[in-house]
Design goal:
The chain is an alpha/beta fold. The chain is built from ten helices and six strands; from the N terminus they run E-H-H-H-H-H-H-E-H-E-H-E-H-E-E-H.
């Protein structure tokens, strides 16, 4: 297993949000009884179209915030499945502001905090969406900063997004551990120069893209070992 210790401990650990910290399937799963056989397809369609719209809007130079993209993607998915239900739509979008955190998130963040390693979020999400989700999940005490693409008005994988973390932390990219459950994001982070780690929860094959993550875990529960954070003692307070 490759660890950050091979090149020194990270100055900070930067996390993607959606799919990494927060379970984007949560809103649909809460309505599974209503949606029946459509539930699984809706999760996939909504997420796929959401990501496609971020990439296409970045290419076109036509930025809107992630809340708008998420709503547009949901509208496409609902229409594709023949689900004409305004109340369902509104409920799913409302729940997106309070997505459940994965069970492995708090323990991983606790290990980083105990080791004195700063933790930040770097996400496509709008500031309001991210703050709402972090607060609802009880994660606010674990993060030193929440960085949104809104400040550069372009989505991942544009290098300007990853530059936000470098500027916020004030160290070179190679001293930042970047963690994402999205393989394409982990690759882009590696290509930018981060020490990138892929949380491959579902055992997907690696992406054929520029940049190769330095490490891969199946759960954030393994992150402390991969980063070898136990080599650093928390500073005295």
């Amino acid at each position: 297993m490759t660890t950050v210790a091979d090149g020194g401990l990270p100055a900070a650990c930067v996390f993607d949000a959606y799919g990494t910290l927060f379970d984007v399937a949560g809103p649909v799963e809460r309505r599974a009884a209503t949606l029946g056989d459509h539930a699984a397809r809706l999760v996939t369609l909504w997420r796929d179209k959401q990501l496609q719209y971020t990439w296409l809007r970045s290419l076109e130079g036509r930025y809107v915030d992630f809340e708008r993209v998420t709503a547009d993607a949901l509208d496409f998915a609902l229409e594709s499945l023949g689900l004409d239900d305004c109340a369902l739509r509104d409920d799913l979008l409302r729940q997106y502001h309070a997505l459940p955190a994965f069970a492995d998130v708090k323990p991983a963040l606790s290990h980083l905090r105990a080791a004195g390693i700063r933790a930040l979020i770097l996400s496509n999400g709008s500031p309001a969406m991210l703050q709402s989700a972090v607060t609802a999940a009880g994660l606010a005490p674990y993060f030193d900063d929440i960085l949104s693409v809104d400040s550069v008005r372009v989505f991942k994988t544009d290098p300007r997004v990853y530059r936000l973390a470098v500027d916020a932390i004030g160290v070179e990219a190679g001293r930042i551990a970047f963690v994402s459950a999205n393989g394409w994001d982990a690759c882009a982070g590696a290509a930018f120069g981060f020490r990138s780690f892929w949380c491959n929860r579902s055992g997907q094959p690696r992406e054929r893209l520029p940049g190769r993550p330095e490490g891969e875990v199946r759960s954030l529960a393994s992150l402390a070992d991969v980063l070898d954070v136990n080599r650093r003692k928390a500073p005295s307070r």
